[in-house]
UniProtKB/TrEMBL annotation:
Pfam families in the record: DUF885
Organism, scientific name: Patella caerulea
The UniProt record lists the keyword Ribosomal protein: no
Taxonomy of the source species: Eukaryota, Metazoa, Spiralia, Lophotrochozoa, Mollusca
Alphabetically ordered keywords of this record: Signal
Classification via PANTHER family: DUF885 DOMAIN-CONTAINING PROTEIN (PTHR33361:SF2), GLR0591 PROTEIN (PTHR33361)
Annotated signal sequence range: 1-20
Name by which UniProt lists this protein: DUF885 domain-containing protein
Length: 594
């Protein structure tokens, strides 16, 4: 999962000026919009490599919804006034993507009293994973440490703002189900320390401060103020835990899906559109999932027959879970195996399907917290910080070796790492180059990062492993099919929960009968779907669209079809809505197929 996932970070330099007043106007508005985005979202600014706002945190509140929306409507009005008739194809694509991004946010304003009132859940944020907040902050100069202390001092205020939003959710009757919240008190307990120097928030003030050029007589004062600030954070954590347990959870929604909210079905339709960037109804998504489950199931049965296994799909994967030869008990050995898959098997074959591959580094590291099986964090355009594939090694024995190839391809190459470095190396305006791949609770009131493009490519990359000959035995191929089946089931289950009144048990049982996962893992997965409505549907829908466009191009070009050129067009434009990706491919076909 690319879930902390494809974050395009800072690339210095200016977009080359395009001649023409309409194009100049567009660039001017884009630049103004970008400056406002960074000022409004300081943590996001830090992630892009812009450190001007490193002493601040984003502000939250019901009273801030309207002024933010008014600002975006102002940008949208100015963009709509631009005459795009003389734009070339590249300019037109940028114009359409910018307008879509602004319009998506404005459309989401209708739902401001829904998802966005619930900023705390078991999947994200400072209660679940403060490591990311710390690890993405620079610590070199004295100013870096001073800025970070300012941020630490503001965390209690941000938590107070969160609670105000959550009180409004209770008032509106639009709260999370308890499954989204049950783990949060325990997560907070993991952050609480009696000795604040043992807190994750204090780690920069040890090694980094020691190694810095800050004068020794200043370091003591910095550390003292940091300890005071972190003491305040500990109290804020305790207050948040008490509020969640005593006020919020007793008022949690009683339905599993958001269809239990006021106009919840409409909210879910908006969430689907936000993630898919296509006009698909929940029923269309649900039906597509059923079709894909049936198709993939046939491939799995054929592969099991070739292996000589006569049982059911769940029985096959139970055998895999129980058979020691399919597991590695050493975290170190598991990490080395991932390195072999990526560096020695996948990388050498990329030039069969891709051209002009940017030379930006990739690192493979142990995940610093207990999250998904793997995640990818983008690096920098200058290569000073590599892209990182984080592998969850907390319980190495739980990883089936037949699943490793598909996960590695999804998160690294030809998946999210390749996707990231192409976009980082392309000439794109900043609002397209840097995606705020976080705060998944906010859609549909959020600027899109085009989930179906991002995660659709990751799943498509798993499929490309077949073309590259990387699934070199039927067991590993079953691991690949198991991963694909998992994503197909999500279409059925996510829509079932949020639109067709499915229960949690019904969703878990559906996936248990068709996937490789255990009941415990599937309960965690289904809880994720209930927390982030629509997000899980993006993988399969995006992959299917990319495959559809590739087949359209192949038929149009015939024997002259160049898959490398197709992949370049998909990747070099960075994250785009799927309807714009379709336009780009159709224009390529029209102009080049003859």
């Amino acid at each position: 999962m690319f879930h902390v996932n494809l974050l395009l970070v800072f690339l210095s330099g200016l977009l080359p000026k395009i001649l023409g007043s309409a194009a100049d106007d567009l660039i001017s508005i884009e630049n103004e919009f970008w400056e406002w985005r960074l000022d409004d979202s300081p943590e996001f600014a830090t992630l892009t490599g812009d450190f001007r706002h490193n002493d601040r945190l984003r502000q939250f509140g019901v009273d801030l919804f309207k002024p933010r929306n008014d600002k975006v409507e102002g940008f949208l009005k100015r963009v709509n006034a631009i005459d795009a008739n003389d734009f070339n194809q590249k300019q037109l694509a940028d114009y359409l993507i910018f307008k879509d991004s602004l319009q998506t946010y404005v459309d989401g304003y209708k739902w401001r009293l829904h998802n966005t009132l619930n900023p705390v859940n078991f999947l994200e944020g400072l209660t679940a994973n403060p490591d990311h907040f710390v690890n993405t902050t620079p610590f070199v100069s004295r100013g870096d440490f001073e800025n970070f202390i300012e941020r630490l001092q503001n965390i209690p205020k941000q938590f107070s703002q969160y609670k105000d939003l959550m009180r409004e959710a209770i008032k509106q009757g639009n709260t999370n189900n308890n499954v989204s919240m049950n783990a949060v008190p325990g997560q907070i307990d993991e952050r609480l320390v009696d000795d604040v120097t043992k807190s994750i928030y204090y780690t920069p003030f040890i090694t980094f401060l020691d190694e810095s050029s800050v004068p020794d007589n200043v370091k003591t004062g910095i550390r003292g103020r940091a300890q005071t600030a972190i003491t305040g954070i500990m109290e804020a954590y305790r207050d948040m835990k008490s509020f969640i347990q005593k006020d919020y959870m007793p008022n949690a929604r009683t339905t599993w899906g958001v269809d239990g909210w006021k106009d919840g079905k409409g909210d879910y339709e908006a969430c689907l559109k936000w993630h898919l960037s296509l006009d698909m109804s929940p029923k269309q998504v649900h039906d597509k999932g059923l079709q894909e489950v049936e198709r993939i199931g046939k491939s799995m049965n054929e592969t099991m027959k070739a292996i000589g296994f006569s049982g059911s799909i769940p029985e096959f994967f139970k055998m895999i879970r129980d058979e020691p030869k399919f597991h590695i008990h050493s975290a170190e050995v598991l990490l080395r195996k991932y390195e072999d898959i990526i560096y020695n098997q996948a990388f050498p074959k990329l030039d069969q399907l891709f051209k002009d591959i940017p030379n930006l580094p990739l690192a493979i590291q142990m995940m610093p917290y207990d999250g998904a099986g793997g995640e990818y964090l983008s690096g920098t355009a200058d290569g000073s910080r590599p892209g990182v594939f984080y592998v969850n090694l907390r319980r190495p024995e739980d990883t089936a070796t037949i699943d490793m190839m598909s996960l590695a391809l999804h998160e690294t190459v030809p998946g999210h790492h390749l996707q990231s470095i192409y976009a980082l190396s392309a000439s794109l305006p900043n609002y397209r180059k840097f995606q705020e791949d976080s705060n998944y609770y906010q859609p549909p009131l959020k600027f899109p990062f085009y989930t179906a493009y991002l995660e659709g490519w990751g799943l498509y990359a798993e499929y490309l492993g077949e073309e590259l000959g990387l699934y070199d035995n039927d067991y590993i191929l079953m691991g690949r099919y198991g991963s694909e089946m998992f994503r197909a089931c999500r279409l059925v289950v996510d829509t079932g929960l949020h639109y067709f009144n499915w229960t949690r048990d019904q969703a878990v049982d559906y996936m248990l009968e068709r996937t490789a996962s255990s009941r415990t893992d599937l309960e965690h997965e289904v809880d994720r779907y209930m927390t982030w409505p629509g997000q899980a549907c993006a993988y399969k829908i995006g992959e299917l669209k990319i495959k559809e466009l590739r087949e359209r191009a192949r038929q149009a070009f015939g024997s002259s079809f160049d898959v490398k050129e197709f992949h370049s067009i998909v990747l070099e434009n960075g994250p785009v809505p799927l309807h714009v990706l379709e336009m780009l491919i159709d224009n390529w076909i029209k102009n080049e197929s003859g």
